[in-house]
Automatic annotation (TrEMBL):
PANTHER family: ABC-TYPE MACROLIDE FAMILY EXPORT SYSTEM PERMEASE COMPONENT 2, MEMBRANE COMPONENT OF TRANSPORTER-RELATED. This is FtsX-like permease family protein. GO terms for cellular component: plasma membrane. One of its GO terms (molecular function) is transmembrane transporter activity. Its main location: membrane.
Length: 436
């Protein structure tokens, strides 16, 4: 019977091509608008490391004082003093300090110009904590951190540029005139949002870092941060004075695999902050936060307001399109009151009328979904007109979105058809036969 009802529905749609076209366009435009903005929202609100986001934690400690905070929220980074003290305490099995730096890669061939690269100075544990993928070699070790070794990990892109994609482990990389031994080559890795450096990047970057060097070596070389550097008061002159200051510029990430570990770590941080208060360094009560990846991104507000507002507006537009579709379907179905009356008089049940008209509405939904897919594809090309380029390029028309577009189109149309179908099923056969 499904095939028979579908045939009746398609025949009915062909009888009123203008009305059918209006319904298909209403559904298509409404679905396209909502799916385009949903693609952007989905890209900006996704979990960047779902397999480990619940066990990776960012550390915050109030080193500024309540009068310098907004809504009591501790600063988003740590000072050198606090970050290194917590690291030395070894209260987490895996922990790493990280901060962004800018370096120039100087090719061996003097005819080639230096290449400015985004880099991170970090601890050895970061590679394993963040599941960073290696294609050659390995990460450096904690022993390398302790020895302040001049080692580096590079990405596939930089390996292609400098070493033509060949084996580069063991070779020397010239960074700003200083030689680093390459111990590993990672596959290109740029999680979006860039959770571990959200305060500096806003969560989104077009291209990820290509070089990683030990944090301890970067400090020896006095490599300043390429990210935010916030100070409540001017630091002392010189690099050593800067390291002793209360300026915040370092992120500290830990892996805590159970609630008991999280509680113990938080308790340690509260004790550490209380100790700083007793020592006279701070005059305020401890204010610490330990947040996993999802909570951290939420606090940092990495989802742009534009994407949320656009999604709400587009859903409102889809609702308006569905209301118009309800009206068009009602007009279409009620014009067939005589046909319905005859069918009912010949023994068709109301359930049969429901099945026929809802299948017909589903056919409209399929056509609207196809149009919606085409318009959604065009909408992806225009997202850069509304959103920044580093966010717009994240929105893609992947198989999941294609399936969702068709599903939303069909489901929305069938839901919109319930009231017109109910009205059609209420037609009284006797009245229709008497009047004709």
């Amino acid at each position: 019977m499904f095939a028979y009802y579908l045939q009746l529905g398609l025949r009915s749609l062909r009888k009123n091509p203008m009305l059918t076209a209006l319904m298909v366009m209403a559904i298509g435009f409404g679905v396209a608008a909502s799916m385009t903005t949903y693609a952007v929202y989905r890209a900006t609100s996704r979990d960047p490391i779902p397999q480990k986001s619940s066990v990776l934690f960012n550390t915050q400690i109030d080193a500024f004082g309540p009068e310098n905070l907004e809504n009591g929220e501790p600063p988003p980074a740590l000072s050198y003093t606090d970050a290194t003290a917590i690291l030395r305490a070894h209260k987490a099995t895996h922990q790493a300090i990280v901060y962004p730096v800018n370096v120039s890669v100087i090719p061996e061939d003097p005819s080639h110009l230096p290449m400015r690269q985004t880099a991170y100075a970090n601890g050895a544990d970061m590679f394993g904590m963040f599941d960073m993928p290696f294609i050659q070699g390995r990460a450096w070790t904690r022993d390398d951190d302790e020895k302040h070794a001049s080692v580096a990990v590079i990405t596939r892109d930089l390996n292609d540029k400098v070493f033509n994609g060949g084996q580069s482990v063991g070779k020397q990389l010239n960074l700003d005139g200083r030689l680093f031994t390459i111990v590993g080559v990672m596959d290109n890795w740029n999680p979006q949002p860039l959770f571990f450096d959200a305060p500096n990047t806003g969560g989104f970057v077009d291209e990820g870092a290509t070089v990683y060097i030990p944090f301890t070596r970067a400090i020896d070389l006095q490599l300043g941060t390429n990210g935010n550097n916030n100070c409540v008061k001017e630091p002392e002159q010189g690099w050593d004075g800067y390291l002793r200051s209360e300026c915040i510029w370092l992120a500290l990430w830990t892996q805590l695999d159970s609630k008991s570990e999280v509680d113990a770590y938080r308790s340690y941080l509260n004790g550490y902050a209380a100790e700083q208060q007793r020592a006279g360094r701070w005059s305020w009560a401890p204010n610490v936060k330990v947040r996993n990846v999802v909570d951290w991104l939420d606090v940092q507000k990495v989802v742009p307001k534009e994407s949320t507002i656009s999604l709400v507006v587009s859903l409102g537009f889809l609702a308006i399109c569905l209301v118009n579709t309800v009206g068009l379907l009602l007009a279409k179905f009620m014009r067939r009151a005589q046909e319905i009356g005859v069918r009912r008089a010949l023994g068709a049940s109301r359930a049969t009328i429901y099945a026929q008209f809802l299948i017909e509405a589903g056919a409209v939904g399929i056509a609207g979904g196809v149009l919606g897919l085409i318009l959604t594809g065009l909408g992806m090309l225009g997202t850069s007109l509304v959103f920044p380029s580093d966010i717009a390029h994240l929105a893609t028309l992947d198989p999941t979105l294609i399936f969702l577009t068709l599903l939303v189109s069909i489901a929305a149309t069938v839901i919109a058809a319930f009231y017109p179908t109910w009205r059609a099923a209420q037609v009284q056969p006797a009245w229709q036969l008497k009047s004709n």
